[in-house]
Each structure stands twice: as C-alpha cells, then as structure tokens.
Write a structure and sequence with these properties.
By secondary structure, the chain is α+β, with helices and mostly antiparallel strands. The chain folds into 2 domains: 81 residues, Diaminopimelate Epimerase, Chain A, domain 1; 112 residues, Roll (Diaminopimelate Epimerase, Chain A, domain 1). The protein has a 15-stranded mixed β-sheet that branches. Strand 11 and strand 12 form a beta hairpin. The protein is globular.
Length: 224
C-alpha cells in the first residue's frame, strides 16, 4: 500500500477492504496516517457513485481512529462523522512560528500544531519555510476567523505533503477550538490552498461532523 501511495504521490491515498463495516487506511507518499477526511469523503463518493453501496444509508468504516461514518445529504454534499480533537493552548517552540513566518495570536497543540493569526489576509499571505517544518515531523494548521467563517491552511512536509489542498482531519481540531469563541456549534471552514476547498463543520459533543463535496475525475486500472 505504501508503494502505491508513493507512486500516486497525492496527499493521501485511501485503501478500502471488506464489506461493511469496511476497513479503511490512508497513506501519504511517505507513511500511514491515523485519520484523513478528504480521502474518506472520496471513498464514500466512489462506493455510492459506482453502485457498490446504496446512498440511502450511511457507510461505516473501521479505522485506526475508530468507527467513522459517511452520510449522503439531500443537497449533494457528503457528511463525515469524525472524533473531536481538543487543542491545549500554550506556546509552541519558537522556531515553529518563525518557520510559518507569521505573527501568532494564539498557539496550541493537538494532533496538529495550531497557530492562530489575526486576519484571513495573513493566512493567505504566509510563505512557510517548508524545510524547517519538515524537520519537526508534525502537521501544522494556520487559521483565523473571517466574517463569521473560519479560514485555514495546513502544512505537513514531514509527511510528504508540503501543503494539503483540503484537510478534513484538521477540522477535528478547529471545531472545538473555534466553536466556543464563535458562540455557535456550526460554521463554514474555507481552506485557502491554491486549489482551495469549502467545508461545513458542526461540533456535537465529542464528535465533529464535516460536510464536503466530491466529483470523479479519473478511472483506471492499477497494474502490479
């Protein structure tokens, strides 16, 4: 699986096994990861759109992060049911913030290192030192509030992902981080990568519901 993911050279490649609950694993070009949102959403989309499973009922996936669920919504979106990952506010090592090249308002540690800045413009303009971040072998979220919405970018060069286009698993950290301060349990999260992406995020107890969209762009056969 790792060799295939390295050949694909995408942020993550998903591998599914068995009938429901399906087994699901995710690999970056360099290693296996514990949780991945966009590849889970893509897996659900393929299972439904290719006729392997009926859209009328949610899918369940057995993963290294427990049982995850995907539900097809009436408006064409897909909603994922993921675990919440609270972040502990506190200082990061100074070279992390320096490598991101921003003025941090707040910082915290969770499954990602989180750096909050004051404005969307600062998130968009950031030009991180990817080599310095790669040496930390961590994943990094850069985030800010923007007119009642959340914006973010995610960098994981130590995992072979210089910048992730859209990161569902980061919302597991961002939901409990932002919801209490926004005074709501649901919000729109926009990822400001070059490709970009929009997610609808809802915090519900110890679960985070992340809705996104998927389209099929290519079909093919894997030759071994």
């Amino acid at each position: 699986m790792q060799l295939v993911a390295s050949e694909m050279n995408l942020s993550e490649t998903a591998f599914i096994t068995g009938k429901e609950p399906h087994g699901l694993r995710w690999f970056t070009p360099l290693n296996e990861v514990e949780l991945c949102g966009h590849a889970t959403l893509a897996t659900a989309h393929v299972l439904w759109s290719e006729g392997h499973e009926p859209r009328s009922r949610p899918l369940e996936f057995g993963t290294r992060s427990g049982t995850l669920r995907a539900t097809s919504l009436d408006d064409g979106w897909i909603e994922l049911d993921f675990p919440s990952r609270s972040a502990v506010e506190g200082p990061l090592e100074p070279d992390v913030v320096q490598a991101l090249g921003v003025d941090a308002v707040r910082t915290a540690t969770s499954t990602f290192d989180l750096v909050e800045v004051a404005t969307e413009a600062e998130v968009l303009a950031a030009t991180p030192d990817l080599a310095a971040l790669a040496a930390r072998n961590r994943c990094f979220i850069l985030t800010a509030e923007s007119a009642g919405e959340i914006v973010c970018r995610v960098f994981a060069p130590g995992y072979g992902i210089p910048e992730d286009p859209v990161t569902g698993s980061a919302q597991c950290v961002l939901a409990p981080w932002w919801a209490p301060r926004l005074g709501v349990d649901n919000f729109v999260s926009r990822q400001l990568s070059l490709r970009g992406g929009t997610m609808r995020v809802r915090l519900s107890g110890d679960r985070v519901h992340i809705a996104g969209q998927a389209v099929t762009t290519v079909r093919g056969d894997l030759l071994t």
